[in-house]
Specification:
By secondary structure, this protein is of the alpha+beta class. Helices cover 44% and strands 20% of the residues. It is built from 9 helices and 10 strands. Helix 2 packs across helix 3, helix 5 packs antiparallel against helix 9 and helix 6 packs across helix 8. The longest helix is centred in the C-terminal third of the chain and has 22 residues. The chain is globular and about 55 Å long. 36% of the residues are buried.
Length: 269
């Protein structure tokens, strides 16, 4: 079985405007960063490099999170992963914002129908977070996103679907914070604007290989009853499987699944 993967991008560096809350912001960014890391976890040097902290500060914050149970330490690899308390908080959040449980069958059906990899993503500030992933039976698996993986809004098909169908003012606020220099494979702001315009015209978001040249992705937004974007469904595959008539078949399947999910999110009367 072949796979295509991408590394976890570093979270955007943000200049803290509230001096007294600086440490809190830094700790929260560390938690987000560790949560998006591969299964092996991240080391102290990773946190220092990608979050922009000094080694003593990073070590102090990691130690505090470890002591409180929000991180766990692999003593052999010297890497940090999310700990038991983070898991408990996640369960509490899932019980209140349980779109993953509601959408799981739709994500699975998409993977089974297309044979490729399907994703459910939600917005978190200026980022998109993958909250579910299912793989189909096609032998080449596109695994560019793991559950918990974060990307800047607009980068990738699902992430672009989350951004493109926001109100114009929200889009401009996101683009004002977007920094294409944080990773070598990020599209420019002008490219993002073109992608947003294309997605709005087509009714779906298309990633024509911006992250991995031989991979393509297509995504659609999921709306609530007020027509606010609450999630995105997407499918990723090798480019030859997302072109021509088959692309339209996948788009129709995505749009049908998104409409059904929107209906499932409506309160029962």
């Amino acid at each position: 079985m072949s796979t295509a993967r991408s590394s976890v991008p570093a979270p955007p560096r943000v200049v803290d405007s509230v001096g007294g809350a600086q440490s809190i912001f830094r700790v929260l960014r560390i938690l987000k960063y560790v949560g998006a890391a591969p299964a092996r976890g991240v080391g102290l040097t990773d946190v220092v490099r990608d979050i922009g902290l000094t080694p003593p500060t990073a070590h102090r914050m990691l130690s505090a999170l470890l002591q409180e149970g929000f991180l766990s330490l692999n003593s052999k690899l010297k890497t940090y992963s999310l700990g038991r308390e983070s898991y408990i908080l996640g369960l509490a959040a899932e019980s209140r914002h349980g779109i993953k449980a509601i959408a799981e069958s739709a994500v699975l059906r998409l993977a089974e129908f297309t044979g490729d990899t399907s994703f459910l993503s939600v917005r978190s500030g200026h980022e998109a977070v993958c909250v579910d992933r299912k793989t189909g039976d096609f032998p080449i698996k596109i695994l560019t996103l793991e559950v918990g993986h974060r990307r800047p809004l607009g980068v990738g098909a699902g992430s672009l679907a989350l951004l493109a169908f926001l109100p114009n003012d929200d889009i401009e606020r996101v683009l004002a914070r977007y920094d294409a220099t944080t990773a070598p494979d990020l599209p420019s702001t002008d490219m993002l604007r073109d992608d947003i315009a294309a997605a709005r015209k087509l009714g779906y978001a298309l990633n024509p290989g911006r992250i991995i040249p031989d991979m393509a992705g297509v995504g659609v937004p999921v709306f609530d009853r007020e027509q606010h974007v609450v999630a995105a469904l997407s499918v990723a595959a090798i480019r030859s499987r997302l072109s021509g008539p088959r692309l339209q078949e996948v788009v129709v399947a995505l749009q049908r699944a998104a409409a059904e999910l929107s209906a499932d999110l409506l309160p029962r009367t």
